[in-house]
Design brief:
31% of the residues lie in helices and 31% in strands. The protein is of the alpha+beta class and 319 residues long. Among the domains are: 68 residues, 2-Layer Sandwich (Dna Ligase, domain 1); 86 residues, 2-Layer Sandwich (D-amino Acid Aminotransferase, Chain A, domain 1), CATH 3.30.470. Strand 5 and strand 6 form a beta hairpin. The mean pLDDT is 93.
Amino acid sequence: ARALGLSSTSVEVMRACRNKATARTLFARHGVPSAASMRARNLLEAGLATMTFGLPSVIKPAAFAGSVGVIRVDAPEELPAAFAFASAGASRSSDDTGVLVEEYLDGPEVSVECVTFRGLTTAVAVTRKHLGPAPYFVETGHTIDAADPLLAQVAPAAAAAVKALGITDGVQHVEMRLVDGRPRLIEVNARLGGDMIGQLVHLATGIDLPRAAADLACGQAPDLTPTRSAAAGIRMLYPDASGILAARHGDQTFAARTPWLQRVQLTREIGDPILLPPDGDVFTARAGFFIVTGRTTAEVTDRLDTAGDEITVTTRANR
């Protein structure tokens, strides 16, 4: 964008967004509440950090994606394996191969989908996140409700985080946790949210985030006017155990008679390996997803459960 003279946040700011350690420093400088964080070059430093923050603590790569290498430590004896797990994830980063130890933020996780134009940030939706079992932070699904009252509560913190990083234009996916009901920043992703969140926003509110991103790239003010008030959700397909994908179950007659089932996408073929954490990660564990709509979050959640009984994947042992 810089080379073409197009509207864009600077390369330096985007690099800061991709590095959790840099972002934490900027959040602290600008008074944005986030998690306390320390770099750990080795196991000894990781141990000292957990003593400072207390347990549970979180160990993660300083710069990577998809919650790869992110793990919670609940007891001292778990630390060596957890540090090795985070270090392996960090080694895959092309930006920063360091490891962070952070304060554990105990509370529900959400993301705020934002659009920034010439320094003014608008929060258009809040995404309620659903995670798999601890100690990992694998995202298993998301729900968005256009009428969610939480949006007004978390929007100021999201906008403050975007401003602290120096973002001037673009679409942002701002992750945070609510600790005692108050937002604490995890990170700002200076891009559209993954996991089809952009489509969930469109289904729930009518706001077209990819179109907004295109408008911003051309220096034009995006149209962020909601045109509907509904809810939508996505659930990821994971098998119960690692192995070779043996079967994909999805009743076509169920899909045909279910208008609220918006999309079913299977991303693995029979015979493909499926590897769950700790041996795998989000990129090796998922076999697909499905999306539903409804009038409210409660209705969407019920429909996700109903569809989840019909759409499943199973594995067999890898011999």
